[in-house]
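COURSE: Structural Biology Practicum
ASSIGNMENT: Worksheet 4, Part C
STUDENT ID: 0417
INSTRUCTIONS: Below are two proteins. For each, the amino acid sequence is given first, followed by its structure token string. Answer the questions at the end about the second protein only.

PROTEIN I
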Amino acid sequence: MVIKPVKKIGYYLAVAFLILYFSSWHTSIAQEPDYRYFYRVYFTDKGDYKPENFSPSRLLSPKAIARRIKYGIKFPDYTDLPVYPPYINQIRSLGLTLHNTSKWMNTALFKSITPAPVSVIESLPFVEGVRVVKVPSAKSVKPDKLELIQGVNNEVPYDRQITMLEGNFLHDSGFDGTGVVIAVLDGGFSRANFLPCLDKLRARYGIRGTYDFVLNSKNVYSYHYHGTAVLSVLAGDVPGKIVGSAPGANYWLFRTEDVYSEFPVEEDYWAAAAEYADSLGVDIISTSLGYNVFDDPSMNYKFEDLNGMNAFITRVADIAVSKGIIVVASAGNERDNEWLRIIAPSDGFKVICAGAVDQYCTISTFSSAGPSADGRIKPDNVAMGVDVTAQIDEKGYIKISGTSFSCPILSGMCACLLQAVPEASPSDIIDILHRCSDRANNPDSLYGFGLPSMKKAIQMLQEKIMLKPGIDITAGPNPFTDHIDIYFREPPYSPLSVEIYSSTGHLLYKKIITSRDYISKTLRLNDLQFRNQGIYFLKIMTDNGTSVMKVVKIND
């Protein structure tokens, strides 16, 4: 019997989604067997799947499609096609269990209780290769990479990590990451569901969801506190105690690091998380993780692998950027160790590699050195990574150190910039972070392009992307439905007062921004409560004068 191609494709796609949701992404109820061997299988192709045979909505979520449209990214493409189900099923028939897949890399991660017949798998005509990514092995004597480095100087101001980047100007101008979605990929988020500094985040349901890609479950709160510390640096908000870099953003929390061992399989978990983040419409991936050496030394990377093209996780991270996601990764804490250099995925061509400085902007002794193996400037930028204010439990606040914490500081600042200039692409953000930094004209292998100024960044970004209005102040869209954007020819650098009146003179809306250094050329009013269609008057007052304009509201 001959199966018509369209029907065949529809059948296999249905099988793919069944495998995805019932094999890889389910929450186990019974005790999972002791899978001790993991294998990454590379496939030669995706069978008879072709992008042109599918409508975009069958391959991508609406949010993933929206991001691609926003940035003019062609879709769907080959990487958007699922791994071919018949290939997966044939390998499963050999007695292996599927853990997850990567459509971007066209790989599948299989596991087994006993060693698998690798030579048999490699002999299959659709298999390009097999890599053993985890075996039973003694834990390395190397210190736990997620163990927190306790800070030593409790006199460092709690907000120094923000003010040294001039991030306080972004926050004071109303840009705290609101509307931006960040995925945090880490080793666990112990007590993050109770942490006092995250009370505001939880109260507004800012933690949008969680997933553990190590065990394929939703619980991320029963493991390490490293991700908790990272999240507190991003989203902590207690006046006078802690200020996150993006307290207004929304978050997805993903566990991709197996804290009990160190093997390349964790790169596969990371890949699954990155692809899921894409489907969720995430804007930024912040990952304070990195890979170079493993419990089994035969699996180690060599420094020459850190060329942006060899490491599995690095290739995945760059694909994520090609889908419109900003990826920020820690440079690593290796400069005072034998390795010395940056670690994957921070060697990615489009990955923002975050180094660490102290409160005086001096590079830390541990911050991994660049360049990449192929000679590119790395790290990209630095932020405070010594004596950073964080919280990991209900006892209080601590000072911690590591590029694990300069990374979320930069990630959060990127979120604030995206809020201020939503049209900015990952390439725009990377370019501006390089250009607005204190070593932009003389980058090196320790600081990269240096410490970025958020005050310069927003101005340069808006100058690059936004059209300058012909008059001092204008507003749009006009007519409007649910929001109004106010455009300034030059930043007002003063307190702002905005009022909206009905045609009969009744005050319906008032917004006051007290910052004496409002640094943006735009102000979005998206909290408008009045619903009636009609003519309204918008009044804008700054130190430079008052402007009044007529606007029209229409309903969808």
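PROTEIN II
(use this one for the questions)
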Amino acid sequence: MNLSIFFRKNLMLLAILAVLAGLFAAAANGMESSDFVITLLRGLSVGSLTFLVASGFSLIFGLLDVLNLAHGTLFMIGAYIGWTVYVRPDTFVDLLTPLALVFSGFMLGDVWTILSTRSLFAGGTKRVLPWAGILVSALILVGVLRSYPVSIWNPEDYAQSPVSISYLAGQGQNILPPPAAFGSISPLLALAGLLLGGLLLAFSLSLFNAGKQAVSKRLGWRSFAGFGAFLLAGIVFFVFNDALTAFLAALNTNWLFLTAVTVAVGAGIGLGALMETTLIRPLYIRPIYQLMLTIGLSAIGIEMVRAVWGRPEFTMPRPELFAGTGEACPATSLSDWWQYHCSTMILLDGRIRVYNEIFVPIVGLVVLAGVWMLLQRTRLGMVIRAGVQDREMVEALGINVRRVFTLVFALGVGLAALGGVLAAPSIGLSNMMGESFLLNALIALAIGGLTSYPGAALGSLLVGLLQQFIIKYGQIGIPIPFTDIIFKPTPPIVPASTILLMVVVLLILPNGLLGKKE
């Protein structure tokens, strides 16, 4: 009985899925078995990367009702951060001390909340003081950072640009330059300036929310624990800078790649939390301003990437586990691949790239299962799902919804950053990679359902498969029945095909395949 009710309620959905399955089956009949399997795996790879962007976007929109149009740029930033850790660990280590000292000030949230309620910061002074503090802190930080030693490339000089550095690293010739030295500023003064600038910046930003936050009854050691941890980390990174750089440079590329992925995801989570607490939170009741803000952040992020890493495209070298070549490659089985670490493998007389077509889809499946377990089997997931359904009721139960919002936003951005760093060895790095994947993610979400996490997975899978099959038929052509004409889809048809699928699905199911009526 329940099964019959399910079929009646989802008849249209099942019909659409049956039609799509029939179309992919028809596509299989027009290809060699090896071509079909390779195309299928490539579709899974593209779908997995799209899913990592779409899933985070879906989580953020589902709970916060925020259309984060900077999500694609954060995907791109994750790729560039991962490349920096993997190819230029010296630059990454040099930046650890400034970042730790500056962000240490943001760990004193309870202290700033109490100070911002003092009468000294009330009245007309309250409007001027935050901006004055931000200006002074910016002057301090810019003055210190201009003289702080950071080993970095030069995008204007081709020999020292990321393009050349990536090429040499891919050839096993990644030689780091000598460490940078302090110039016109003493180390002690530089550290003090970074700490002071971070404290002043954090306090100035807290003044914008003066009177809007709950004041702690008293300060305890936990109020200062985060600050102490970041301060200690900054000092340790400064003292052991050269040793940590040498350790990372000598690390096996597999472990270094894992480190790069971890750092990129962590940076994405940190950026997401910072964005939500400082920029998004004041605009929850102003959706138009959210769109304008995130579009602006996207443009700023793209220009910052261009200024730091340059405009040319380049590829992040694959780790040793997926970069093997020689007479034993391509591998003919998984055991051969494990032994020789071949970059390619023979499957059904066709050659596939192990990293692109096997590793990336596996990571996508692991993330899908992991986040699904988080949403369905944990207390945080229960709060998130309840917040999607009835935010006011969750607040009435005494749950700190603001903190949950920050966690969800940070998780969504972290997933995008994970997609970016995984895409770097697969499709390469470019200034516009985020925009293209954001478009794919939006189409996938419209197909699967904007606030549906399983819908994000299904929509991303359909987008990836459709694009890759269109690309493949652009090479082999589609015979037109009852004629001698061979139709070969042109490149512009690839994105147009996904948009056409989205239009058809939305005309039949306005909420998407797995979306629910609001």
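ANSWER KEY EXCERPT:
Q1: The first strand starts at residue 344 and ends at 347.
Q2: Residues 31-117+149-184+211-324+348-508 form one domain.
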